[in-house]
Amino acid sequence: MQDFISTSSSFSSTSLLQKRLHYIIHNRQEWWVYGIFWQASKDANGRLIFSWGDGHFRDLALAKVHNANVSDMEMFYAVSAPNCFLSEDDLIVHAYNSGSYVWLNNYYELQIYNYDRAKEAHLHGIRTLLCISTPHGVVELGSSQVIQENLELVQLIKSLFGQINDHGFNFVPLGDPMDTKTITMGSDSGNSDESSAMNKDSPKKRARKSTTAKNHVEAERQRREKLNHRFYALRSVVPNVSKMDKASLLADAVTYINELKAKVEELKAKIEVSTKKLIQKRNCVSSSAVVDGTNINININSSFVDGMEVEVKIIGVEAMIRVRSPNVNYPCARLMNVLRELEFQIHHATVSSMKEMMQQDVVIRVPHNVTNEEAIKSVILTKLSFA
């Protein structure tokens, strides 16, 4: 990564464009991490397109990550080189068409404005993103700090990148769609020779190179767009996100997944303990119930069988039945079928569900010959266990 940035900087260090970017990054009081000039040109169909003209990354920021992992801002700067902008929905195109500037310097502005580049910049730690329109392209500046709007800086950049004759810029006119617009110094013989060599290429060769480059740019753009959508989806399901950069998001997702695994193991342990207790109780209790004149012999330990818990409370001529069970295999329908088989008259019923468990509260009219709460509980639990 450092080789890419240093090579890019050294290759064009003598150009006036590189000097202008270097001046803004290193001589201004604001802490700008990088500067990019997006050069305006036209494609084979005559559409206005913005591609990498030149860029500069702050050396001090590179020194901080020397012999360490590549920072998010370095990555964002490096992968910007093959980018190409031509849609009116792109931030660079919008800034150029406005003839002014776009200054985004807080979380809400970077997120609210529906610009993929602004969202991607924020994910890589950029807190201030500035795009300034010039006659021949757009100057983009990025910072890891929040920088307030400064019209004096905007005018300075417009002046530095807007003069042509006085500062020796030589822009290829935008009227010819087959020309690739380049910025060179009038006194720079190396760049002049390179420009002459490019002009000697045949139109077919230039068109073939242009098509290959565009296909590569489009494929890279689609890959980055898909990756960003995946990160947006991941961020929406992770409850606690410490920071907005991608590395922190991935770390938070790993932590969250480990917490879920721990909860699953804890629930499994609780289920095993409950099952063992249930088996032990089943082997120690036997009861008999009589409902509506019918003798029912049941071997049952308590009010808790197969994850179901039944409670019965008789008050006068009514009885309140509460059944808690896992919300599987239609527990509500099973309970209603049991009550119908027992010919219990239902006065009121409520159902609620929480965390894969269902609770049913039913008020019935108690038959005249039934006064034992345990008898009702036992017969309901027995029938539910076989339903």
UniProtKB/TrEMBL annotation:
Biological process, per Gene Ontology: regulation of DNA-templated transcription
Region (Disordered): 182-223
Ranges in coiled-coil conformation: 250-277
Record-annotated BHLH domain positions: 211-260
GO cellular component: nucleus
Entry-linked SMART domains: HLH
Keyword Transcription regulation: yes
One of the record's GO molecular function terms: transcription cis-regulatory region binding
Composition bias, Polar residues: 182-199
Keywords annotated in UniProt: Coiled coil, Nucleus, Transcription, Transcription regulation
InterPro entries named in the record: AIB/MYC-like (IPR045084), bHLH_dom (IPR011598), HLH_DNA-bd_sf (IPR036638), MYC/MYB_N (IPR025610)
Locations listed in the record: Nucleus
PANTHER family assigned: MYC (PTHR11514), TRANSCRIPTION FACTOR (PTHR11514:SF115)
Name by which UniProt lists this protein: Transcription factor
Source taxonomy: Eukaryota, Viridiplantae, Streptophyta, Embryophyta, Tracheophyta
